[in-house]
Amino acid sequence: MTRVVAGRAKGRILKVPASGTRPTSERVREAMFSSLEHRGFIDGCEVLDLYAGSGALGIEAASRGAIYVECVESAPKAAALIRQNAVDLPVVVTNQKAETWVKLPANRAYDLAFLDPPYDLPENKLTEVLEGLLPHLAHDAAIVVERSSRSPEPTWPAGMELTSEKKWGDTRAWTGQVTQHPSVNNRVTDTSQ
């Protein structure tokens, strides 16, 4: 059973697809989010959850105070379950492949991005997604990549660098940060005051 760990939806049971996803465990989410919250990366942030699967990471972020979450998931049944799980939370679900989504024009500047791709995704494909992701991120955004503990560290593209690495059993997460943005921040700011 997968549940929301903390926040306004704490304890909510998340429906998960019968196969094809591996929701991030509650223990890992608690540790991951504790670290991110300590660094100021959840409350009031805009969050992207690529390869969303069950949506556990994006929904957890919304429950803990993210103001906008986009979950990108290619499997239609999984995307439908995320919509059901995210009722009354600021979550938008996009039914599309992450590899396709990152090639779209950037219309937001996300403060935090989660990538939890299938373990069998080739490393070069993950690198391509990370490269395509950069224009969609704020100038100091955090990126969390979750993989098998046997996976090598992701190849960080120019403009991103590793800030931490954690391992929990069969799961490893690398956190990176945007260090150099390719363009001006895409967020629209109202300057008429």
Describe the 3D structure.
- The protein is α/β, with parallel strands linked by helices and 193 residues long.
- The chain has a single domain, classed as Vaccinia Virus protein VP39 (Rossmann fold, 3-Layer(aba) Sandwich), CATH 3.40.50.
- 24% of the residues lie in helices and 28% in strands.
- It has five helices and nine strands.
- The strands form two sheets. Strands 5-4-3-6-7-9-8 form a seven-stranded mixed beta sheet, covered by helices on one side. A two-stranded antiparallel sheet has the order 1-2.
Shape: globular
Cα gyration radius (Å): 15 Å
Number of strands: 9
Q: Provide the structure class.
A: alpha/beta
Give the helix proportion (percent range): 10-25%
Question: CATH superfamily, called what?
Answer: Vaccinia Virus protein VP39
- CATH structural fold name: Rossmann fold
Contiguous helical run count: 5
Roughly how many Å apart are the termini? 49 Å
- Give the name of the CATH architecture: 3-Layer(aba) Sandwich
The largest sheet is: 7 strands, mixed
* Sequence stretches where pLDDT stays below 50 over 5 or more residues: 184-193
Tell me the strand percentage band: 25-35%
- Across the major sheet, the strand order is 5-4-3-6-7-9-8
Helix/strand order, N-terminal first: EEHEHEHEHEHEEE
- Report the average pLDDT across residues: 90
CATH class: Alpha Beta
The total tally of domains equals 1
